[in-house]
Amino acid sequence: MFLAVGSSKGVRLEDVRELITKLAAENALKYGKASPKAVLGKLIAAKPELKPKIRDIISLVEEVVAEINTLPPEALNQLAGPPKKKKKPSERKWPPLENAEEGKVVTRVAPEPNGYPTLGHAKGLLVPFIYARLYKGKFLLRFEDTNPRVERLEFYEAIREEFATLLEAAEKELGLGPGKWDEEIIESYHIPKMYELAEQLIRKGDAYVCTCPAHIVRAKRKSGEICEHRGHSIETNLELWEKMLSGEFREGEAHLRLKTDMRHPNLTMRDPGIFRIVEAPHPIHGDKYRVYPVYDFSISVMDSLTGVTHAFRSKEFEPHVEVQLAILRKLGLREYEMIQFGRITVEGIPLSKRYIRPLIESGILEGWNDPRIPTLRGLFRRGILPESIVRFFYELGPSKVDATVNFDTIASINRKILDPRVPRYMFVPDPIRVTIEGLDTPTLAKVQVHPEIDMGIREITLEEPLIYISQQDIRGLNVGDEIRLRGLATVNVRSINPDEISLKVSEEQKIKGLKILQWAPLEGGVPARLFIPKTPYSYEMLGGYGEPELANLKNGDLIQLLRLGFARVDSKSPLTLILSHK
Ligand SMILES: [Zn+2]
Q: To 10 degrees, what angle do helices 119-134 and 153-174 make?
């Protein structure tokens, strides 16, 4: 039997009864007795589509609740659902998409392969991906590669790799799967189709070849004057277009313009260029093409042809929406929803390739994976987890306004995820040698791997009573002070010299209320360097010794250094760590 709800959806009565039973049992367990009103409220919250049928349902709810209220608690436990888990993160509501139908939404990310993806690209990836999955639709990766001068093959690969990593993390972190794109499209393979469409526009008198120099075009678009080329016949335009394609014009000597309105209030709409000559080899096609569509043409035509229903784009392109719609309308192509979203800037960290590239070329940065810059590669190398980036953008939501974010926000998300997972180690920067009187050696120190989570105990063997502690830690210490060496002993300060400190084991091995110091054994202590990213130009570097276990770390391991913060192993011999954040 079906309860007809609305016009299209049907809900099975058996399912509704089962749900009511479960809700009533939970309600009865919580309050001793179930209330029909409370159960009805929960039911409508869980299945809002039942709301129009509320009057039919009330009697059903009353019937079930009466039955439930006769049952003993053991029976209720069986009927109630499993104990409530913490609210799943993906239950956080994103605003609905306009004109979206479940199963029919197609979104895409359209990166240009002109550099390594940054945190800004992550938003461009995750917003459409999340919507595609929320609506059980399709998600496309489309390379917007029609600007060959700045595009390189290695960037296609970098984008694929980083995007794959983030989408996998999105499935894991948000439960939105499958965590990958459904189809990959390389725009440049569709250039012949775009030529066809260009010719169609020329034949309809909607496009013309203009051979005015760029500065004249600019001036006339500003003043609203037309040039002599606008009046050319279709035949002349077809001939000139052929000449553009065959190489009779050099770069900058001719371009194809859409015929719209030279007095349009939106300057972008004044006969915009739609194809231009680029005399640079394409990373995939080499010299095969010399005429390339401009962004407005390729993006709108490709979105339309590949079935995109909702296209997300950064707000800076807002004036171009009109141009893109004009192109679609003149070509008679399907229109779709164009959704603007705000850009993000990370406070104090430059995101733009224009800024980063010269720093790489000059050697100030090591490369696109330098941990001081917010390329995804750099962030991963710094120890920022892909799931932290996913979580960050999920919490930020699909905001339409530009947002300035603080690295600390990402760090705090990362910290929450990392903290229960990673072991903690002692590391002694700027070490000073220490002798301990009254310590029987060899001795076994025992330190907890994690203070709150049971990760076991680490044992450190001390063959001789010689250790390092940090110079920072002895500031403020005086002879006679009592301190605790973590996991080792309670000691008194006997003497403090510039190059050595002498300690003596206290009679009473108390722990409470004492300053606890980190240490590393002189014999077996692992030399290590910790790089702390400051600005794209600088690091702070701390050198010192860590406990012996650090020698067993592998490249890429994430750890926490007590009191210093989270770090990632960047390389070994000497052990080099990069501080992720405190
Ligand atoms: Zn002209």
A: 50
- CA of 208 relative to ligand 1 center, distance in Å: 9
Is the pLDDT score of 71 beyond 90? no
Q: Which two tokens stand for residue 439?
A: 């310590």
Q: What are phi and psi of 299, to 5 degrees?
A: -65, -45
Q: What separation in Å is there between the alpha carbon of 445 and the centre of ligand 1?
A: 83
**Rounded distance between C-alpha atoms, residue 428 and residue 547, angstroms:** 9
Task: Output the pLDDT for position 60.
Answer: 83
With cut-offs at 50, 70 and 90, classify the pLDDT of residue 4. Answer: very low
Q: What is the CA(215)–ligand 1 centre distance, in A?
A: 11
CATH 2.40.240.100 for the 424-474+515-581 domain, yes or no: yes
Rounded mean pLDDT of the chain?
Answer: 91
210 CA from centroid of ligand 1 (Å): 4
**Ligand 1 center–CA 218 separation, angstroms:** 10
Q: pLDDT (tens digit, 9 = 90+) per residue, 305-319?
A: 999 999 998 877 888
Given the candidates 1.10.357.10, 1.10.1160.10, 3.90.1170.30, 2.30.30.100, the CATH classification of the domain at 345-418 is 1.10.1160.10
* Cα of 257 from ligand 1 centre, angstroms: 9
Q: What's the CA-to-centroid distance between 145 and ligand 1, angstroms?
A: 27
**What does residue 47 show for φ and ψ, rounded to 5 degrees?**
-130, 75
Give the tens place of pLDDT for each residue, 434-477: 999 999 989 999 998 988 888 889 999 999 999 999 999 988 89
The predicted-structure confidence for 504-522, as pLDDT tens digits, reads as follows 999 888 778 899 999 999 9
β partners of residue 566? 560, 581
- Residue 212 CA to ligand 1 center (angstroms) comes to 4
Q: What distance in angstroms lies between residue 543's CA and the mean position of ligand 1's atoms? A: 65
> Is the bond into 398 cis (omega within 30 degrees of 0)?
no
Listed by start position, the domains of the chain span 2-85, 99-338, 345-418, 424-474+515-581
∠ CA 438-490-501, rounded to 5°: 65
> Which letter does DSSP use for residue 90 in this model?
G
Strands 526-535 and 575-581: parallel
CATH number for the domain running over 99-338: 3.40.50.620
Pairing mode, strands 443-448 and 431-437:
unpaired
Nearest-CA neighbor of 367 among 148, 577, 570, 167?
570
Looking at the predicted structure, is the pLDDT value of residue 9 above 90?
no
Compute the distance from residue 217 Cα to the ligand 1 centre, in Å.
Answer: 7
Q: If pLDDT is split at 50, 70 and 90, which confidence band does 224 have?
A: very high
Cα Rg of the chain, angstroms: 33
What span, in angstroms and rounded, lies between the C-alpha atoms of 136 and 558? 35
Fold: same for 345-418 and 424-474+515-581: no
Residue 53 and residue 3 in contact, taking contact as beta carbons nearer than 8 Å: yes
